[in-house]
């Protein structure tokens, strides 16, 4: 397939997309005329789905799994047009003015800052040679890491369409020898123990209904001496005298869970306890909430343009309901209920 | 699915003690040319389970690989061997077929080159 220079258009005027490389055109994806998919045509990635809210209030693994794969398979084409292939937050300097910011560069900076925080060596002899991308989306992290380290990278996702697109993009970027993608479940990774020097989970942990199993699998497939990097949104830690979040906080998070395909939120310290229970070493944690703060307000501004508003009205009531969730995300971040965290550790030799 | 990927996948069905290597059932193999990178091959060689790899390559229809793993020094100088290693590892693709759990016989389908390793409810 000949590569064509991807037209840098965006229906969201606040996201001028700087296309640095040419991509093969996506096959045209026909969205069935359900309110689910029509919403996806005008929403950014975190917009609500139309799936009944009941599915998210109970941790029904297979319903959640089917929902995640369907949602991301159907919306990833739309997402790629607006955001490109990196499906995660950008890393911004705190209190910076982000108008005109290259969001793609910020997303790449997120990867670089994560690697630096984890202490990945600059020495080529000590850099990862085998990497797993857990919940890989369209595979942008895998391709970036493979290129950076000359490493071999396996990515997996619940969505077959995503995996297929990820493979196409790998081939277009000349990385077909180094990266490959399959359909698999992070709660049951299809690899023997101890395979990977670097275990990478970029904003996939939010979707895992069983955090203990998720973390267990990350540790299991990590090679002795290997590094695990988890970057995720989570809820705030509890104070020393608190037994649970405040009722208003729980209510806020529940509304977001129902809208965004999320099982129950956990906190950074929940992750740390799980990692400690598995005897993982050098556990490091940072709160990067201030570094992603510009993200949601920027999404909101893009919806509130005349163009975005018309498109929203056209997409129907469920889209509007989804859009109303964005202020909740902003509120959650502003009030410190929702955090953005990085957690890294090493498996003992 | 390349054989490099196959060399890393295993069946983790509940109760299975050794789910590696997965047997390959071929319906369609496709050859896709990829530029050779000698350093990459030298780095990846020690991590390959050679027996599983050479058996798999035979099932995919390629018989040029030795059954026994060569000494690592062979990779320094034998360009012909590197070419065969590269071809089998990275250029042969199982486009359609299945990967089969060696203990339970359960088939993981491979469609359009993508293995689907999702387990059913009763297998976890």
Automatic annotation (TrEMBL), chain A:
Q: Where is this region: SAM motif II?
A: 194-202
Keywords per UniProt: Methyltransferase, S-adenosyl-L-methionine, Transferase
Please verify whether the record's keywords include 4Fe-4S.
no
Sequence similarity: Belongs to the class I-like SAM-binding methyltransferase superfamily. gTMT family.
Check the record and name the Pfam families matching this protein. Answer: Methyltransf_11 (PF08241)
Q: Enumerate the GO terms in the molecular function aspect.
A: S-adenosylmethionine-dependent methyltransferase activity
Which stretches does the entry tag as region SAM motif III?
221-230
Name a single GO biological process: methylation
State what protein this is by name: Tocopherol O-methyltransferase, chloroplastic-like isoform X1
Segment SAM motif I: which positions?
A: 131-140
Where is each Methyltransferase type domain found?
Answer: 132-230
Automatic annotation (TrEMBL), chain B:
Q: What is the lineage of its organism?
A: Eukaryota, Viridiplantae, Streptophyta, Embryophyta, Tracheophyta
**SUPFAM superfamilies from the UniProt entry:** Trm112p-like
Which biological process terms from the Gene Ontology are attached to this UniProt entry?
rRNA (guanine-N7)-methylation; tRNA methylation
One GO MF term on file is: protein heterodimerization activity
**Subunit structure of this entry?**
Interacts with TRM9.
**Looking at the record's lineage, which domain of life comes first?**
Eukaryota
Protein family according to the UniProt entry: Belongs to the TRM112 family.
Question: Which named protein is this?
Answer: Multifunctional methyltransferase subunit TRM112-like protein At1g22270
Gene encoding it?
A: LOC111292414
